[in-house]
Amino acid sequence: MFETLKKATLDKIFVLMAEYAADPRTDKIDLGVGVYKDHTGLTPIMSSVRKAEQRILDAAKTKTYMGVVGNKGFSAAVVDLALGGVVDLKRIRTVNGAGGTGALSILMNVLSRARPGGRIFISDPSWPNHWPMAELVGLKPHFYPYFDAQSRRVDFEAMMRAVDDLTSDDVLLIHGCCHNPTGANLSRGQWDAVVESLERTGAFPLIDLAYLGFGDGLEEDAYGVRKVVSSVPESMVAFSASKNFGLYRERAGVAIAIGRNEADAEIVSSQMQNVIRATISQTPDHGAEIVRVILEDEELRAEWQAELTQMRERMKRLRVKLTDAIRQRSNSRDFDFIAEHSGMFSLLGLPQDVVEELKTKDGVYMINDSRINVAGIPEGRIGELADHLLAAIR
Known about the structure:
Elements lengths: L11 H11 L6 E2 L16 H13 L12 H12 L8 E7 H16 L4 E6 L5 H7 L3 E6 L1 E2 L4 E2 L1 H8 L7 E5 L12 H14 L2 E6 L8 H4 L1 H9 L3 E6 L11 E7 L3 H18 L6 H11 L1 H33 L6 H4 L4 E3 L4 H11 L1 E2 L5 E3 L8 H12 L1
Parallel strand pairs: 1-12, 3-4, 3-7, 7-8, 8-9
Antiparallel strand pairs: 2-10, 5-6, 9-10, 11-13
Helix pairs in contact: 2-11, 2-12, 3-11, 4-10, 7-9, 11-12, 12-15, 14-15
């Protein structure tokens, strides 16, 4: 049986994780894998999460199934958090996904049933799992321009030339705030222009929302997704709680579908449930219940938001410190874009041989396209990191 198979291409992120783990050097620096890290280099369990878990443990009476749609309280709380009441709830249907990726997979499956062999447009660059996910369900992926490697900013003119050329049968996969791996994000005015184009062409928006609260704040970061879903008749959103709740291994996500009316929403709901039943049968609940408990409790929610603010402000501080350190050493503003970017990531624009030298010579690990996780920067070694970067470039 297996003699017909060829070795699959492994995700470069997981390959890098394995290389870093096998490196015996004690002074190595991990800027690769996209998880939040605190000042000790650990990915912490938020105190609000610990308290919610203890409540769940104390109150638990069963481990039976939740049902195919999953934890309804979790989904409702996420819809309120992300969409803020801008869409009539009668038009919204949700199911839980196994993380944001699981939610996105469910939504792509439904879209492939609605438009078999249809085109889906993915930003260049995007995450390495987006393209194969689309192919796996039978959609035909195409890239649209997003990032200008020279300015390190969104190439919005090129992006809009592609977006304006879409049709009503096309799907546009859009990254929510801080989700694009480059660190460059759409401004409010640019979100408005995207919405105007979607209204004109009828193209279908699919929003991947995994970093809500990592940019400027929960309300500020929700502007783009709320603008889209409140302006077009149909849309979908894949939400992840992995980053902003620190629930990476719990796989808590929500697939959100918004129909033209309640009847259409019911049809889409049945399709989402059918996809779940045919794939994983039931979705995991522990992470979902943690988020539900936090968002439904006033004190825990306030504590979580305070922790999220600390995480966001720490990443901003690291950006500024690294930018200042590079500028002081090089007398150049070439890396000022690091402080201008938002969220966890920045794309440095380094050649692959430089990235390889940083890894082998200095133990500085980053994805081979030079994307770094800002949260992985060791705050006490920023000057050392700046020296390594500049030496490798020179």
